[in-house]
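Incident review: delayed structure delivery

Summary: a single-chain prediction request sat in the queue longer than the usual turnaround. Root cause was a stuck worker, restarted by the on-call engineer. No data loss occurred. The affected request and its eventual output are reproduced below so the record is complete for anyone auditing the incident later.

Affected input:
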Amino acid sequence: MGNLMTQMTPARTTILVIDDDAIIRKSLRRFFNERDYAVIDADNGDDGLRQFDEYNPDVVMTDLVMPGMDGLTVLQEIRKRKMDVPVIVISAADATDNVVAALRHGAYDYITKPFGSMTAIENAIENAVARLRQIQSNRTYQLQLESKLKQKGREALLLQQIAAIEHEKHDLAQKRLEETDRLLAVIMNAVTGSFGQELFDQIAANVCAWLGCEFAMVVEICDPETMRMLSCSLHGETHRDMMFPMLKTPCAEVAATGYLEITSGLQEKFPKFGKRFGFLGESYIGVPLTGNEGTVLGTLCAASENAMELPEHVRGVMEILGARAGAEIERLHLENQLRQSQKMEMLGQMASGIVHDHNNLLAGIMGYAEILHNRLNDNDGNLKRYAKTVMDAARRAADLSQRLLRFSRQRGKKRETVNIHMLIDEVVMLLGRTIESRVAISKKMTAPSAYVNGDPTELQNALMNLCLNARDAISGCGMIEIGTRQIQLDELTAHHKGLVSGTYLLVTVSDDGSGMDSATQARIFEPFFTTKGEQKGTGLGLAMVYQSVRQHGGAIQVHSVAGEGTTFSLYFPLLEQCFEKDEIVHESGPACGNGRILVVDDEEMVRNLARDMLTTLGYTIEMAEDGPSAVNFYKEHHEEIDLVLMDLMMPRMNGLETHRQLRKISTGVKTVFCTGYDFDDSLPVDNEPGVCAVIGKPFSICTIAKAVQTSLQSDETVQTETNPGESEQ
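Output delivered after worker restart:
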C-alpha cells in the first residue's frame, strides 16, 4: 500500500518510488529524506498509479520487474496521464533489453540494481528535476510571450488610430476601432493556444482567411539554396513538409531584403512560383521570420490569383505573425538539441557499464594471444600469424569501445593532422573486398587540399558507415560515389549549418538507391532509430557518424528523394598549413624484474592473465578476488608485498576504497590501477597518495611491464597509460 513518508510542502520536490522490494524502498526513503525530498512509495504498479493520481509527484522511480503490473506498463500509463513527468526505471544489471524498451517508451533515465553508488541516483534525480523545470519554464515563457504579443499588438494598433479618431467623424472612428479588433482577432487566433506544427497551420490558415486569398505559406530556410514548407494553406487544404529550391523565388527576395509586396504581375517576375501546386498567383506579400539575434530563419507569405486589396496595417500584422513563427522555430530547434543531449547522456551511462565488462573480456583475449605469439617460434608460420591476427582484432575492438564512450559523452580524443583523401583511398580499398561487384564504387576528389584536424580512426569509420548504409540502400545494381571539394561558407550559410564562416572541406557520399522520405530524414541521426528489420540494425550507426562529425567541428546534412537515392554532405574545417606526421616509434620488448605483487580483480580471467604475464617477467604473484579479500591478505603479508596491481571498479569495495584501507595498514603501499573506462575523464585517483600509475584495459605485456617497473622505482606520482587499442597500432 502507498505511504506518504514525509510531509510535503509546495516548495519541495516529490518523488514516487514503486518497487516490490521493501529493503530498496526503505533505502531510497532514507537517502532522499536526508536530502530534503518528499517521498511517496508503493509496493506494486496498481498502487503506484493510484499514488501518482493522488499526489502528482515531480519524479517517478519504478522497478521494471514486479509481480502484477510490471514497470514498463506503469511507464506507459504515466505517459498517458502526464507526458512531462520524468520516469527513471530500476533494472537488474543484466536486463539491457528491458532498459532499451523502457527508453523507447519515454523513460528519462535508468539505474541498475544492486546500486553501486547512491551519488548516481542523486545525480539522476537532480537531472530529471532540472529537465522538468526547464519544460515548465518553456511553457511559462510561451504564455508570457503570447500575453506580450497581445498587449503590444493592441497598443501599437490603437496608437495608430488615435490621430484618426480625433479628426474623423464618429462613424469613421467606430469603423476603425472595429478594424483594430478584427486585426487583433486575426493575431490572437493565429498565435495563441498552440505550438509547433499546429501553430504553423493556424498562422497559414488565418492569413488566408484574413486577406481573402487562396494561398499562404510558412517556410523555413534550410540553406541558401533550399527551403522547407512548414505549413501551406491552399484553397482551404493544408500541405506540409515539402522541399523547394530557393533561388529566384519571392522567398529568396524576402530573406535578402525584408518586406515584399507585389500587387500584380507576380508570374512575370517569378514565373516558377506556384507551378508545383498548379497555382498561378498574380499578387504576393511576404515578411521574413527572424530569430532572437535577427537571423532570418524563414518567410511568411501569401498570394492570390487576383490582385489583392491589402488592408491597412497589413505589414505590421504580418510581421507580428512572422515574429511568433520565428520564435517557435527557434524553440523547436532548442528542444531538439536538448532531447539529443539527453539521449546522448543516457547512452553514455549505458555505454560505460557495457564497455567496462567488454574491456575485461578483451584483456583476456588480447593478453593470452600476445603470450601465445611471443612463445611461438618464427618456424611456426601460420600459428604465429593467427595469434597476431587475434591481437590486432582485439586492439581494434578496444579502440571501438573507447570511441563508443567518447561518442556518447560528446568528447573526442587528441587530434592530429589527417589527409581525408588518404582515408577515402583506404575506405574504397576495404569496400572493394566487402561489397558485391553489382555495386560500383567511384571517387571524385577535386579538393586541392584535404587536410583536417581530427582522429583518423573515427573519420575512417564514419565514412565506412555511410558507405555501408549506401550499399544496404541499393537493392540491385547501383553506384556509390565519394567526392571532395573545397568550399567557402559565408556567415549566413554557415549559421544554417551550425558553423562559423570560413573555408571547409566538403565530403559527399552519394548512392542511387531507394532514398528516404522526409519523415525518415528528420530522424536518421537519432540514437536507436533504424529503418532496418529485426536483427539487422541497432540504430546507432548514423548517430555515431553525426556525433563524430560534430566533435570534429563540422556539420552533416542529408538530401534524399524516395526512389532516387541519397547524398550525405560532411563539412570539416580545412587546415591552411599541414605537416607530415612523425614516424611511429615502436616499443622495445617488455622489461623483466623481480618483486612480489598482489593482483586484485573481480574478473578471474583478468587476474590469471596478469599473473601469467608478470610471472614470465620474473615477478612473484599473489591474487585476491575483491577488495575485502585484498585487505585481509595485506594485513598478514604487507611486509612481503612490493606492489599492488588492482582493478579500479569492483563490487563490494571499489579499488580506491581498497587502496585507502591498505594505506591504513601501511603508508608505504604502492598501487597501480587498471580500468576499462575512458581516460578522457579526470580519474578519481589523481593526486591520491600511494597511487603510482593507471593503465587501461585491455593491456599489453609491454604496458603492464613498464607500469610495474616504473612504479617500483618511482615516487608516488600517478601516470596514465592508454590501452593498446589507442597507442600501439
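Verification: Confidence is low (pLDDT under 50) at residues 4-10, 533-539, 579-587, 723-729.
Action items: add queue-age alerting; document worker restart procedure.
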